Amino acid sequence: MAPDQFQRQLLAWFDRHGRKDLPWQRDISPYRVWVSEIMLQQTQVASAIGYFERFMSRFPSVQSLASAELDEVLQYWAGLGYYARARNLHKTAQIVAAGGGEFPQTLAGMCALPGIGRSTAGAILSIACGQSQPILDGNVKRVLARYHAVTGWPGETRVAERLWQIATAYTPPLRTAAYTQAMMDLGATLCTRSKPLCEICPVAAGCQARQQGLVRQLPEAKPRKALPVKQSYWLLLQDSERRILLEKRPPTGIWGGLWSLPEFEDIAAAGDWCRRLGCIVQAPQVLPAGRHTFSHYHLDYTPLLAELENPINNVMEAGRAVWYKAADFALLGLPAPVKRLLLQHYPEDFYDENG
């Protein structure tokens, strides 16, 4: 099927069946499209809606986001994961606000901003600015890999280059915003990873994967390899007022900028740390271990619950460690497994004061 025929059939389907009531499809602007695209990189649409609406309510403009403290931005991002995205949102907002509040109108200018890659830049420019720019997010990769029976994992350079060539050739000069949304909708609702609905796909007649019986094999998955496992001990240090000591993590790296529990290689290291700070603690209680999986490794963590016997009310480690009550947990940017652990052990305090 020629590109123009593909476009006509896809757009006709979108006009009748496409999603047009998502929150980021209202009051369209580069800012709103940008935030939604960053959220949707690792989050399903249904889950992203609530986060987007809360984020927009608090940060309705690029200027409001730029002027906010990073801690607050991370708080509104908590639970979405991949926190470098939130840090890059904040950096980019400050850059754009400092330049007058307008986003670049070129692909190169957009890609120069922190956290914005070629596909995200294309989505912003096509949806919010009406430019004819291709995109290649996960949904579009799946549609094009099947439609042209492109073998190989899309993360490989050779395969990615081929898919970009196809995406560029198939992106129309007009109605690009609708076409871009239509491609994302097709991948999200019909050309899904499992159980694709080929029988009602508007472009099924030209799909080479369907003709060759390869729909379920394409796109090919990333070659699997065993993820390494890292061990960690988390210290739940509680004082006489049932406050918990939390540390602010470094601005970069895993969970950068979030508040977390002090982390150690073993129990002895946790004890040494307490003694250096002048803390007198009871022998820690070893709580059930848990696992949190990142994209590149498993983190097995063992919580250690310890009671502080001497009063220490000062802020420690030059502001990196602070005592917090359970009622404050919801106001902090916390990694998801840390928040679950804290609420598991302090549910009454949390819900009594937060409703």
UniProtKB/TrEMBL annotation:
Designated name of the protein: Adenine DNA glycosylase
EC number: 3.2.2.31
Pfam families the record matches: EndIII_4Fe-2S (PF10576), HHH (PF00633), HhH-GPD (PF00730), NUDIX_4 (PF14815)
Cofactor(s) the record lists: [4Fe-4S] cluster
Family statement drawn from the similarity comment of this UniProt entry: Belongs to the Nth/MutY family.
Keyword terms: 4Fe-4S, DNA damage, DNA repair, Glycosidase, Hydrolase, Iron, Iron-sulfur, Metal-binding
GO MF annotation, one: purine-specific mismatch base pair DNA N-glycosylase activity
A biological process from GO: mismatch repair
Annotated PANTHER family: ADENINE DNA GLYCOSYLASE
Purpose of the protein: Adenine glycosylase active on G-A mispairs. MutY also corrects error-prone DNA synthesis past GO lesions which are due to the oxidatively damaged form of guanine: 7,8-dihydro-8-oxoguanine (8-oxo-dGTP).
UniProt remark on cofactor binding: Binds 1 [4Fe-4S] cluster.
Catalytic activity from the UniProt record: Hydrolyzes free adenine bases from 7,8-dihydro-8-oxoguanine:adenine mismatched double-stranded DNA, leaving an apurinic site
